[in-house]
Amino acid sequence: MSVADEEWTQRGIDVNTPSVARLYDYYLGGKDNFPSDRLAAEEILSVVPEVRIAARENRAFLGRAVRFLAEEGIEQFLDIGTGLPTQGNVHEVAQEIRPDARVAYIDNDPIVLAHARALLRGIKGEVTVASGDLRQPEEILQTPEVRKHLDFSKPVAVLLVAIMHFITEADDPRRIVTTLRDALPSGSYLVLSHGTHDNRTEAAKKGTKVYERANSPLVLRSRTEIRELFDGFELVNPGLVWLPEWRPDDFPLYDDPSQALIVCGVGRKP
Ligand SMILES: C[S@@+](CC[C@H](N)C(=O)[O-])C[C@H]1O[C@@H](n2cnc3c(N)ncnc32)[C@H](O)[C@@H]1O
């Protein structure tokens, strides 16, 4: 174990169990991962090499969606499952268009929180970070940092980007989204991306198997099931589509958009 890994262990970070946040960091070419993560990630990439591009497409979608919402006048963002800080973080994208945009970052992975807090040190008060578990959405909504930071009498965009596929059926994904939706005023938005097994079913099974030893299992769903998560929201154009198909502003990274493995959409609460 390297000195750095030992330091993390002393801070209570489990470096031996692959973490979904660190796996994603590895796909994106980040450095905040440990040997257990790299081994699992390489195993996944050997069966589903598109995962690396899917991760990049997912970040690109997140950026386009936040830009779209800021242009629509949204000034408040609740980003649940924010991930390790990388390029194009939500506050950076939103504040390019709305310098006063407020962002609350939530994650349940201690290493994500440690890095996010370090990144945000020295940033002015429009951004906050707090620990929270999406499986308890009521608690997230009541978190003092969230309540202090966001005004739920005005529209808020809730970002559930590449996180709902870590929620099992036992944790009732539809209830989670409904709880968040009911706390939002009219004119609020849901941004969601989610892995699907509709294509590449065999490879998806093998990839899912590797995630069984990670800190969260991977639960891929059908497009129909993912569409149901937007219940009570009106999908904005172009609806629920593969990542590169959502309001593209650049050339796609590949010809077949289904290779992005993840579908996405943005819904508006009427
Ligand atoms: C694949 S990353 C996505 C990061 C970012 N949203 C993006 O799309 O670029 C998933 C993130 O969700 C977090 N996560 C997974 N399950 C969670 C839960 N139940 N509650 C809060 N965060 C969770 C992980 O720690 C990780 O940071």
Give the CATH superfamily.
Answer: Vaccinia Virus protein VP39
Q: Strand content of the residues, in percent?
A: 5-15%
Amount of helix: 40-55%
Structural class of the helices, strands and pairings? alpha/beta
Molecular shape = globular
How far is the N terminus from the C terminus?
Answer: 53 Å
Bound heterogens, unique? S-adenosylmethionine
Determine the number of helices (DSSP H or I, runs of at least 4 residues).
Answer: 11
The biggest sheet amounts to: 8 strands, mixed
Rg over C-alpha atoms, rounded to the nearest angstrom: 18 Å
Arithmetic mean of pLDDT: 93
- What sequence of helices (H) and strands (E) makes up the elements? HHHHEHEHEHHEHEHHEEE
* Total number of domains: 1
Protein described:
The protein is of the alpha/beta class and 270 residues long. The chain has one domain: Vaccinia Virus protein VP39 (Rossmann fold, 3-Layer(aba) Sandwich), CATH 3.40.50. Helices cover 40% and strands 14% of the residues. The protein contains 11 helices and 8 strands. It has helices at residues 3-10, 20-27, 35-47, 51-71, 90-97, 110-120, 137-142, 144-149, 173-182, 201-211, 223-228; strands at residues 76-80, 102-107, 127-131, 157-161, 189-195, 234-235, 241-242, 262-268. Strands 1, 2, 3, 4, 5, 6, 7 and 8 form an 8-stranded mixed β-sheet that branches. The longest helix has 21 residues, at 51-71. It is globular. The mean pLDDT is 93.
